[in-house]
User: What shape does this take?
Amino acid sequence: MYTDFRSVLVSEEEREQVRQQLNRMVESHLFKNSRRYPALLRFIVEETLEGRSESLRERPLGVQVFDRPADYDTASDPIVRVTVAEIRKRIAQYYHQEEHDAEIRIELLPGRYTPEFHFRNFRIEPQTDGGPPAGSHPAAGIEFAGPAQSRGSPVEAVVDNNRHRLIRRYWVAAMIACLICPMVALSIVRWLKPSPIDQMWGPFLGSSHSILFCIPTGAGKKPGPLVATSAPGGSNQHGEMKDAGPAVPSFLAYESRGENVVYSDMLGTLSIVNVLAAHHHDYHTKLNESTDLDDLRQGPAVLIGGMDNQWTMLAVAPLRFHFAGNDETGFWIADQKNPGSRQWSLDLKQQYVSVMRDYAIVARLHNKETGQPEMIVAGIGMSGTAAAGEYVADEKRMEDLRRRIGSNLKDHDFEVVLSTDVVNGIAGSPTVVAVAIL
Assistant: This one.
């Protein structure tokens, strides 16, 4: 059996035993193919062994383990929570294997970043008169003492307990089989005949990393700069006025034109989130202004929005279909094979109710700079982005795309140009007007 958890290990020998157990775990196939999971697990275990567990909180872990800035937004960048959740799952898988049953347990309980350590604790009692030596059965984790005679002897106790233990394991195995067999059967069916959605999102769902949604901020989409006001100066102890601090935007100005997201961009994002939720895949969001190249190298990314997202513009610039234009001439989706055409264009200076049609680019590519798959979901206007998000999450439309590209949709990068009717800013159903295999 295991001892109760002790927050303070009493000897260096115990600490070394925990470190050896940690090494066994991170060298297993569940951890060794990842950089993030072993790094965070090693850090929190070592900090606990050294008596610094009080510092194991989300923000310090993000700063010290994942090199986030000291003031980073944990709500939009939940890398610590996502990584810890995955570590818990892998720890459970590790100890579920019978060959690890007798090892020291390193556990990470939900809601905590401080690990717990549990040790095997066996008791051996003195030999009694005329009987065989008392002892324990480490494989079963059973303590016993006393003479081996008749019914109730230590040997029979071990046999009985082993039998009960095996019966319990069979029952547990049977219940687990009843739960997982349908899921396994569904997985086999999906593997033999993957759906169009599975093929479309295969490079993303097949990754063990959290998927990043890079969403453009609404700043700059409304006319006028952020209105700055001077910080109050006040007076010193002699009654003299102190200098006012630097000019800063008012809360109202920042609320109106600061870190806000366009509603249509969120509609496109939520359509894709529903796909990930159905496949139980982790994701997180960041605004484009706070996203850097290192973020995009951590795992697959979905880039939302066109001209208002610099990462989208960089990704599509070398592709056949890409965004072009400016405020004076209007914006359009350009075709490298027909550079003079502006058939897919939109004048963003039109009155809101006058816009009747919008266009968008959907592209799946493997970015050589980041080494990760990227999905582009971007309209010229906001309505196009909403329609593009609906398109990539729709089973029937993905079936149509598979017919256009080929049955091995998962293995081809591609671009699609979409057209959508617009009524009072609301997008209608998307229609494919061009497809290119990259």
Remarks:
- The two ends are 59 Å apart (CA to CA).
